[in-house]
Amino acid sequence: MKDFTLISYRRLILALKDAGYAFLPRVEFANHQGEKVVCLRHDVDLRAANSLRTAQLEHELGVRATYYFRVVPESNQPDIIRAIADLGHEIGYHYEDMSIADGNVQAAYAHFCEQLAYFRTFYPVRTICMHGAPTSRYDGRDLWRTFDYHSLDITCEPYLDLDYARVFYLTDTGRSWDGYNVSVRDKIPVYQDEWIRRGLAFHSTEQIVNALRDEHSPLRLMSESVLITTHPQRWTDQSGLWLRELLLQSAKNVVKRLLIRLRK
Question: Is residue 12 part of a domain?
Fold first, then answer.
């Protein structure tokens, strides 16, 4: 079965439901304890229209998710942001202000505050998430070495506020579920080795679906909550766009491997 299609994404959601997971947006996920819960986080890096199709599918299945939008035009599409919010999904800011301000912390913070106010015209934004920006020398999270986003009524930044001893993280970075090998920033290094040791490592969506349906699998049996990050630009049933994303991401992965080697 071809991966990274809306068909395969639907199968993933249905498998999570069948496994007993409840779905929560990011703002409700951080402090939740008890029943098995999953948060579907979407980083809208490019092709915002793909995110709307993903949001519509989730809405049809009775699922609420979280969508993080960048300020670049390919992501920042007001009509689409508004439509996704109207479907009941959470909207957040996918920030990269340190890169935009070329490392100037004061300018980056001013830009962050301005953009946060902008996105709050669509939704009462309470959570944020850094954009990995693999080709940039600046890590967006470094902004919080000087400032405190909590003072802006932000409750959570998933790379800084989540306890990954209690949360299992899956991301499609690199266009596979084991793309942490080619990820510059979208990874959880300390815990990743432990997840691999426990058998919680997957390459394809179908492998995740099969693990969720196997009552003896580590994924089905584990007690942790699950945070799943996808990039909707990768998920499409349109053959031309699907092939384009496959080829483009393959080339990007080569570049990211080189960057990782250079930064060691």
Answer: yes
